[in-house]
Amino acid sequence: MDRAPGAAAIIAGAMLGAAPLIELVGTTRGDTDSAADGLRFLDESAYRYGLAGFVLVVGGVALIVAALGFAQALGRRGPLALGVLTVSTLAVVAGASVLFAGVIRHTSHGTIDYIEGMDHGWAESAYLAVHLIGTQALLPMAHHLLAAWLVGIALVLLRAGRRRIALVGVLPALLLALFAVDAVVPFADDGSASGIVWVAYVLTMLVAQPLALVALGLAVLRTGTGPLVGAPTGPALSGPGGTTPPTG
User: Fold this and answer.
1) What is the DSSP letter of 235?
2) Distance CA 113, CA 194 (A)
């Protein structure tokens, strides 16, 4: 069970990375914000939309397992215990958001197709509702909360002297920094510089973070969670009078 969080992190990273590829590669997706393009995509590749949703469901569940596993292993070790539990809670919310977005995507295309048979305008509205709730709200929120978790785990690893593995927090930290900058100077504004930064922002969210999850999972799968942070310390290891109990 010591390696279960690592396996879950690998699955979560793989699923989060695969979902956009399933939907976008080899298709004429068009503008995802366009209801007309969205309905045309669903008419041509509804199975891709549904499959991407299922993959997100698996990824969301795996992320929840990974977050709870790390919280169980690291949550009571050292002065950062409260911080670990806090960012782990954020990761659980992120996993739930990915799960909900996946369920919406997996189940909605048939309903949208049925609505389109009654009224095309209603179908466009239904597509936009699904798009705004899932793609534009739940998934970005999940990625930013996931970034906070990865940065928190990286800080724990850095404090434990695991500097190489702690590098998994660098790009998620960049994502959070770009998010803060975007709040002041929106990247979507016209201008080549803003466009380049916006592309970097999206790539960090959709590519770098899944890779960081996989890298963290591989590290844990090799060693388990214990060696990543060193031996646990604290009152739980002390015998009567504050001395360390003898070992057999």
Assistant:
1) G
2) 37
Q: Tens digit of pLDDT for each residue in 123-179?
A: 999 999 999 999 899 999 999 999 999 998 888 888 877 778 888 888 888 888 888
Question: For the segment 60-87, what is each residue's pLDDT rounded down to a tens digit?
Answer: 999 999 999 888 887 665 566 777 888 8
| Residue 125 in tokens | 């509205």
Residue 192 tokens read as 């080549």
Query: Which tokens hold the place of 106?
Result: 């997996």
User: For the packed helices 139-159 and 170-184, what is the interaxial angle rounded to 10 degrees?
Assistant: 130
Ramachandran angles phi, psi of 79, nearest 5°: -70, -10
Output the CA angle 198-96-76, nearest 5 degrees: 100
C-alpha distances out from residue 13 to 65, 118, 139, 141, 187, Å = 12, 39, 14, 16, 26
DSSP string covering 10-42: HHHHHHHHHHHHHHHTTS----TT-HHHHHHHH
**What's the token pair of residue 83?**
């911080």
Helix and strand totals (H; E) in the chain: 10, 0
**Three-class secondary structure of residue 246 per DSSP:** coil
| Integer Cα distance of 15 and 181 in angstroms | 28
Is the whole-model pTM more than 0.90?
no
Give the count of beta carbons closer than 10 Å to the beta carbon of residue 169.
24
What single string gives the DSSP state of each residue in 175-215?
A: HHHHHHHHHHS-TTSSSHHHHHHHHHHHHIIIIIHHHHHHH
